[in-house]
């Protein structure tokens, strides 16, 4: 009745409302009801009922530092009566609390506390932060949960632990930090893309990367790079400053990811950036690090004389093998100059080029942050700058970023906020990958050591298909500037304490600006091109609008029920403009406007997604859990027949610890069984118009010789109106076990993912005039387990030692694939039914005949010839298992941590050796120091065949001899820090001052003969395990200072 | 009051518009295949697209041509890709990427021609789209299709024939290979159709009736129909628009295009470049020198009494490496020479010699020699004349796709190249094609 009166009161005061419909009135009622419920204040008095004394209780809740804690749930134990603390941490019960009853105070991230209420005094209650995992808050899709209530399989990574590893993108820092998250760095170039998989590879043509969500914005993570860096690509994730990140959650099983529907199949990485706290004083932080990076190892090269000797040997051997070549000792290339030769081998000089390209690189980074809040406003401001030189000249990566997160309470029920981050990255790039021209690494690595750097006349010498290294070093000009904005605005409204509404609008905008200029001294710009410049601007914008309505209520104290419904709209647009100029007047002109020949083009592509989603969860006394979710996604990418996809999931958990029979077993602090099943989808990475039948323009041809090109059109792609999503079914079983009050926390997950309807570019007979069309046909499975163990080994006085160990294994099988697909040049990799992805397709070298020195290959079909039919799938670039182990120690002001990461069972094809030890088939090439292992005399036992350009020894390019075990253990990070005692700092009004030393990639234990088993030649998602022309991950050492005022 | 405001916000935020309209996104760079060839001007664009396929890098732009000369005896492989070396060594494997690329490029060209033939023929006439124009466009498509099947049959011998456009994924596969004779019959049928439809004009970069005559002359030569070969050559040679221009380099040097030498060449622009030069030119000139003239050929071409002024087609770097210099332009707009008047002259020489007209044969041969700055041939007697013509063709077309086909067609591959395995006279059907189309049989001797 009182409530109705209030409504009337408001109505009479508000002309606005008079005009509103009946619907509005009802809603207002709901609002009002909630307000009146919370705000009614009545005088406290004692009331005696049936002999029980009811008293009024009020109090204030603070944390250990005396900061007031708002939002603490205060419940009178054994009743439904509860309230929450206000902004100042105050709570109050009217005369409804039976004397001597117990009130329970709980808040996420804090240990729950029970207090006996004796009389109506004012209580001051202190809540202790809970550092143990159980009450850790874990971000889930569209919400958060305490770890003890988790049903899904989610890894949470504390970003602070690894953010000093000097790489461009935060995802590259996560290696070994989360069970089941496989990360290979691919290259030592900062800011380049990495290989990341959550529970294996599910797709061939669609993306295999997880969905990245930063503060609710689904961000782009595919590179916008258009200039060639030899098959490599930059990482858009590097635009995010790791210093601004609060936490990273990796969602792995279907009950966690199905709420993301068509984008959940490869897992979800949720990034939460830092925000301020209400009622906290401004805290200014400053971090600076300075360091160096170096190559831990470089390739061994044969000296000039040895290189020349090898050349002669191959020349003569080839002449013996094929007399028609007319290659004999007499006309060997390295014979005395007097005989018309190039001088004897021993007269050759050795010219080192590798030393010219590697450098001890400098690393620096600076971060400034300010965070705090008043009763209604909280803020986080961050500014950062980092500059990382690569160990290879002249490459470096710069990032300047700026962040502002702001939240404002409008009143007790409404909160609005904004998240902004803007960054500018600058990259000085060079080709560290495949391709000779402009190939920085190849030029340094592959030119024979006896070849001088300068011609006799002093001009720079160019050899083979390569540039002159000095020319490249002095004239390389490939630069990329990138501006990235990621932000969103949101509104949260508590319609009732149980019912919350949220609306948000987010944007990810990326302006990627590239330029390259090759002057006439470089091969690319040499006469007759006379200078070549390109400029490309690529614009990617993604916008996202979401509404969610969530409801949570505990019924009768036992039945905890939650419901979420929501919708989202998303648009994604990529526009790109490209221009190229050649024939410059001279090398001083560098802009396309000065070029005599100019070409240009632009491109445009767009996709849209509409989604509706819902999740319901229920638990009975935190004992039995059930969660159902469903998402419907409609995508513009697919034909009308299959535009909508539906992705359901179900998850259950049984928290056995809460059962009576375990409740009193003290050494078991937690035991929970989990199970989930669900379906997720994948549509990322495929062409926006893949389902359509299309003709292209741009294939012009003249009508007559004077007219120049006139427009032309041609068929481009055949339609497949039934094209649809890739679908991944995933089943997951898990156990969470806590022992001795959480000192040992173990999480084990076993899963099987089965992906069907793979988007395959199905090869089509070329007689159709098309090479392939998109169709849903392949199937891939991933089966594996993940184990994560956290232990607190010692916790005594000031000393603490904690360990995390995680290990995961994933077995990938291509279950169905109509036609094998070959990957990369020379088809070194091949995807074939019944075999895992990233399998190598090679001729198996059995041995080198000790008598002849010739390689003997396995003749699989026993037809007496070595043909393509004898190629086999041998080895695999994926590890059998991988993981990490980290230990952290704190003692008084000291802290230390050490992280090892490992992979076991992955193979690497040593493509450097393929080019460097080519037996003479590649004239004027650098020879690897390993050439000394070649067969030379009858009786030699070796696996390196006799040098010759004839026969299969080196002409068979897919030789299993070059496949090596790439297992490794890496000392990924080592850090030691010292915090200056507070008593020395207070005088200077400094709150905290920490000095630190960090080393990364400090040690590498591996049998692999190359520099780094994680190297990979290309960024293409189907290429792994080909090591070529790539600088290794650098070994770095940094000193840092963290200052908090 | 303030609560109402949020309620309104809620209502606004909840507005969702029609999802299906929202999800309709039309491409802007490509167009739907239902709305392509609908009128005269779109028909013209489709014909240009067809020529672009003919000129594509996997076809006349480079790869097809390279198979023609790499498989002969003039070129050595000097690059990093072993697949080019397989042609030089006559050890071509079914997984050779160039073989697959050429197969696919030729059928792509055929599909574009089939689209023109099927769709342009049914278009209504307009004031600007006359019957004459329509005939010309369809005639060009017949010519291009004839050339494409001609190239297929001389590379692979037996290939499947498809004459309708591919409109869905079920079209144009699953058919067994036709015999060599059937493919040649199809070439002739298309040439005849083109001949009646095309106008008798001169256009050196597009097909006209005269281009058809030239190709027919070559067609009959390959089919040993000497009289027909001679008479079609006569028609072309009699035309005043085609002349041997001296010196030899005139038709390619100094950025020349569409000279009187050319009966048919393909045109390139800064936008549509040819990859030919990249394979020939040394790194100093921005190429990769995948292949280069071999020493035996260099000795011939640089001999003033044998090569004459044709030595302009080779050049050497400062460090003494020889390279082919017929394709050299930047941007790479070197034309692809499909039929030159020199070829028609030598076709007639051969056809005449085959018919015993040795005097006349020598006249044609000497015309080509004269242009190269050489004296009259001293060849005497049937055998010597044939050898002289063969030698002249070897040098004249060293960097054009003739030498290999000539040796196979005249059954001289064993004598000249030492290639006794006759199965190697044709290429293997690409292994990937055999896998996706079970109706295809591998060529004999491969697999």
UniProtKB/TrEMBL annotation, chain A:
Its main location: membrane. NCBIfam families: OMP_RagA_SusC (TIGR04056), SusC_RagA_signa (TIGR04057). SUPFAM superfamilies: Carboxypeptidase regulatory domain-like, Porins. This is TonB-linked SusC/RagA family outer membrane protein. Keywords: Cell outer membrane, Membrane, Transmembrane, Transmembrane beta strand, Transport. It is found in: Cell outer membrane. GO terms for cellular component: cell outer membrane. Residues 148-268 form the TonB-dependent receptor plug domain. Pfam families: CarbopepD_reg_2, Plug. It is a multi-pass membrane protein. InterPro entries: Beta-barrel_TonB_sf (IPR036942), CarboxyPept-like_regulatory (IPR008969), Plug_dom (IPR012910), Plug_dom_sf (IPR037066), TonB-dep_OMP_SusC/RagA (IPR023996), TonB-dep_OMP_SusC/RagA_CS (IPR023997), TonB-dep_rcpt-like (IPR039426). Belongs to the TonB-dependent receptor family.
Automatic annotation (TrEMBL), chain B:
The keyword Mitochondrion does not apply. It comes from the Bacteria. Residues 331-415 form the RagB/SusD domain. GO terms for cellular component: cell outer membrane. It is found in: Cell outer membrane. Residues 22-220 form the SusD-like N-terminal domain. The keyword Membrane applies. InterPro entries: SusD-like_N (IPR033985), SusD_RagB_dom (IPR012944), TPR-like_helical_dom_sf (IPR011990). This is RagB/SusD domain-containing protein. It comes from Albibacterium bauzanense.
């Amino acid at each position: 009745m009182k409530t109705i009166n209030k409504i009337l009161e408001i109505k009479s005061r508000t002309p606005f409302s008079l005009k509103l419909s009946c619907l509005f009135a009802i809603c207002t009622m709901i609002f009002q009801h909630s307000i009146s419920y919370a705000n009614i204040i009545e005088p406290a008095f004692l009331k005696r009922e049936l002999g029980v004394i009811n008293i009024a209780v009020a109090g204030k809740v603070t944390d250990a530092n005396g900061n007031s804690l708002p939002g603490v749930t205060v419940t009178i134990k054994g009743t439904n009566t509860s309230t929450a603390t206000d902004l100042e941490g105050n709570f109050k019960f009217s005369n409804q609390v039976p004397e001597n009853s117990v009130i329970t105070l709980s808040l996420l991230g804090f240990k729950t506390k029970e207090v006996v209420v004796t009389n109506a005094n004012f209580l001051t209650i202190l809540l202790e932060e809970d550092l143990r995992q159980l009450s850790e808050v874990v971000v889930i899709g569209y919400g958060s949960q305490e770890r003890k209530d988790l049903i899904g399989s989610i890894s949470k990574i504390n970003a602070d632990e690894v953010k000093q590893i000097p790489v461009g993108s935060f995802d590259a820092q996560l290696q070994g930090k989360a069970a089941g998250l496989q990360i290979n760095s691919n290259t030592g170039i900062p800011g380049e893309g990495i290989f990341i998989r959550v529970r294996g590879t599910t797709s061939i043509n669609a993306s295999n990367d997880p969905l990245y969500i930063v503060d609710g914005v689904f961000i782009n993570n595919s590179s916008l790079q258009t200039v060639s860096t030899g098959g490599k690509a930059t990482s858009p994730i590097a635009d995010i400053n790791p210093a601004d990140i609060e936490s990273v959650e990796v969602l792995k099983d279907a009950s966690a990811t199905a709420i993301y529907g068509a984008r959940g199949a490869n897992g979800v990485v949720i990034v939460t950036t830092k925000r301020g706290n209400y009622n906290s004083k401004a805290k200014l932080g400053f971090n600076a690090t300075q360091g160096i990076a170096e190559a831990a190892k470089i390739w061994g090269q044969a000296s000039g004389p040895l290189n020349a000797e090898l050349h002669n040997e191959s020349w003569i051997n080839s002449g013996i093998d094929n007399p028609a070549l007319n290659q004999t000792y007499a006309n060997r290339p390295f014979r005395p100059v007097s005989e018309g030769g190039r001088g004897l081998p021993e007269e050759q000089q050795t010219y080192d080029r590798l030393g010219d390209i590697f450098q001890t690189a400098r690393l620096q980074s600076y971060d400034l942050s300010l965070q705090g809040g008043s009763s209604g406003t909280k803020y986080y401001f961050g500014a950062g700058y980092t500059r990382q030189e690569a160990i290879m000249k002249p490459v470096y990566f710069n990032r300047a970023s700026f962040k502002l997160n702001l939240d404002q309470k409008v009143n007790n029920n409404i909160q609005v906020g904004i998240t902004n981050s803007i960054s500018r990255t600058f990259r000085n790039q060079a080709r560290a990958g495949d391709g000779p021209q402009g190939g920085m690494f190849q030029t340094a690595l592959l030119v024979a050591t006896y070849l001088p750097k300068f011609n006799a006349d002093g001009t720079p010498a160019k050899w083979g298909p390569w540039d002159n290294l000095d020319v490249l070093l002095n004239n390389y000009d490939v630069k990329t500037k990138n501006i990235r904005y990621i932000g969103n605005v949101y509104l949260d409204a508590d319609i009732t304490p149980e019912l919350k509404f949220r609306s948000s609008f987010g944007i990810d905008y990326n302006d990627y600006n590239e330029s390259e200029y090759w002057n006439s001294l470089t091969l690319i710009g040499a006469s007759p091109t006379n200078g070549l410049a390109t400029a490309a601007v690529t614009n990617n914008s993604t916008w996202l609008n979401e509404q969610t309505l969530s409801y949570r209520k505990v019924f009768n104290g036992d039945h905890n029920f939650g419901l979420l419904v929501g919708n989202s709209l998303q648009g994604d647009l990529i526009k790109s403009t490209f221009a190229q100029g050649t024939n410059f007047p001279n090398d001083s002109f560098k802009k396309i406007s000065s070029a005599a020949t100019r070409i240009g083009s632009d491109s445009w592509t767009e996709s849209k997604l509409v989604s509706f989603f819902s999740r319901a969860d229920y638990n009975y006394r935190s004992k039995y859990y059930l969660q159902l979710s469903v998402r419907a996604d409609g995508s513009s990418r697919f034909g009308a027949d299959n535009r909508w996809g539906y992705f359901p999931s179900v998850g259950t958990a049984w928290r056995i610890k809460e059962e009576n029979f375990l409740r009193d077993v003290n050494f078991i602090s937690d035991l929970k069984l989990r199970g989930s099943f669900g379906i997720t989808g994948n549509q990322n990475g495929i062409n926006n118009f893949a389902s359509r039948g299309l003709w292209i323009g741009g294939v012009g041809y003249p009508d007559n010789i004077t007219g120049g090109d006139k427009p032309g059109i041609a068929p481009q792609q055949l339609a497949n109106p039934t094209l649809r999503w890739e679908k991944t079914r995933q089943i997951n079983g898990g156990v969470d076990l806590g022992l001795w009050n959480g000192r040992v926390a173990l999480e084990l997950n076993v899963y099987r993912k089965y992906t069907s309807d793979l988007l395959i570019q199905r090869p089509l007979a070329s007689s159709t005039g098309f090479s392939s069309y998109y169709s849903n046909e392949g199937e891939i499975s991933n089966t594996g387990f993940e184990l994560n163990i956290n232990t607190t080994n010692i916790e005594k006085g000031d000393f603490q030692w904690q360990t995390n160990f995680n290990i995961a294994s994933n077995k990938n099988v291509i279950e169905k694939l109509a036609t094998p697909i070959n990957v990369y040049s020379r088809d070194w990799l091949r995807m074939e039914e019944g075999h895992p992805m990233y399998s190598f397709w090679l001729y198996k070298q059995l041995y080198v005949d000790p008598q002849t020195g010739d390689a003997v290959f396995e003749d699989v079909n026993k037809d007496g010839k070595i043909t393509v039919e004898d190629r086999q799938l041998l080895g695999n670039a994926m590890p059998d298992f991988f993981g990490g182990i980290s230990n952290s120690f704190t003692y008084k002001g000291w802290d230390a941590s050490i992280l090892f990461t490992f992979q076991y069972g992955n193979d690497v094809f040593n493509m450097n050796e393929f080019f460097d030890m080519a037996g003479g088939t590649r004239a004027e090439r650098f020879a690897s120091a390993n050439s000394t292992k070649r067969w030379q005399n009858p009786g030699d036992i070796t696996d390196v065949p006799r040098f010759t350009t004839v026969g299969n020894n080196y002409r068979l390019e897919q030789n299993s001899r070059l496949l090596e075990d790439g297992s490794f253990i890496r000392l990924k990070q080592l850090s030691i820090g010292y915090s200056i005692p507070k008593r020395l700092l207070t005088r200077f009004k400094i709150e905290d001052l920490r000095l630190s030393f960090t080393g990364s990639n400090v040690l590498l234990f591996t049998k692999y003969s190359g520099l780094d088993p994680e190297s990979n030649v290309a960024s293409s998602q189907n290429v792994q395990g080909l090591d070529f022309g790539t600088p290794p991950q650098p070994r770095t050492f940094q000193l840092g200072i963290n200052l908090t005022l | 009051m303030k609560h109402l405001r949020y309620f309104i916000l809620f209502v606004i935020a909840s507005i969702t518009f029609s999802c299906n309209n929202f999800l309709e996104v039309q491409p802007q760079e490509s167009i739907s295949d239902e709305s392509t060839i609908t009128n005269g001007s779109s028909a013209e664009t489709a014909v240009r697209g067809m020529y672009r396929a003919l000129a594509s890098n996997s076809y006349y732009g480079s790869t097809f041509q390279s198979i023609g000369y790499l498989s002969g005896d003039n070129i050595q492989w000097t690059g990093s890709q072993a697949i080019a070396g397989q042609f030089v060594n006559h050890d071509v494997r079914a997984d050779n990427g160039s073989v697959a690329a050429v197969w696919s490029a030729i059928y792509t060209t055929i599909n574009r021609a089939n689209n023109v033939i099927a769709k342009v023929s049914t278009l209504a006439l307009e004031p600007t789209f006359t019957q004459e124009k329509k005939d010309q466009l369809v005639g060009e498509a017949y010519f291009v299709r004839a050339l494409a099947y001609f190239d297929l049959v001389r590379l692979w011998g037996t290939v499947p024939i498809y004459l309708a456009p591919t409109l869905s994924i079920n079209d144009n596969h699953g058919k067994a290979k036709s015999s060599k004779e059937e493919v040649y019959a199809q070439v002739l049928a298309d040439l005849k159709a083109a001949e009646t439809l095309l106008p008798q004009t001169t256009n050196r970069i597009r097909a006209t009736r005269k281009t058809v005559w030239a190709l027919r002359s070559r067609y009959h030569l390959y089919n040993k129909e000497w009289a027909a070969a001679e008479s079609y050559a006569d028609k072309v040679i009699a035309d005043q628009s085609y002349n041997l221009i001296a010196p030899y380099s005139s038709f390619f040097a100094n950025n020349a295009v569409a000279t009187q030498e050319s009966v048919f060449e393909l045109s390139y622009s800064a936008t549509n470049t040819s990859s030919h030069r990249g394979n020939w030119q040394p790194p100093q000139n921005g190429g990769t020198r995948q292949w280069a003239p071999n020493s035996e050929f260099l000795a011939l071409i640089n001999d003033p009494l044998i090569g004459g002024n044709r030595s302009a087609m080779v050049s050497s770097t400062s460090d003494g490496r020889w390279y082919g210099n017929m394709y050299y332009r930047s941007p790479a707009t070197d034309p692809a020479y499909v039929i030159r008047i020199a070829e028609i002259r030598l076709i007639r020489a051969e056809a005449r010699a085959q018919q015993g007209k040795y005097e006349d044969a020598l006249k044609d041969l000497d015309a080509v020699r004269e242009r190269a700055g050489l004296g009259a041939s001293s060849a005497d007697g049937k055998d010597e004349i044939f050898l002289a013509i063969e030698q002249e063709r070897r040098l004249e077309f060293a960097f054009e796709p003739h030498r290999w086909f000539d040796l196979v067609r005249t059954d001289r591959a064993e004598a000249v190249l030492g290639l006794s395995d006759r199965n190697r006279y044709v290429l293997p059907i690409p292994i990937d094609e055999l896998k996706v189309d079970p109706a295809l049989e591998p060529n004999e001797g491969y697999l």
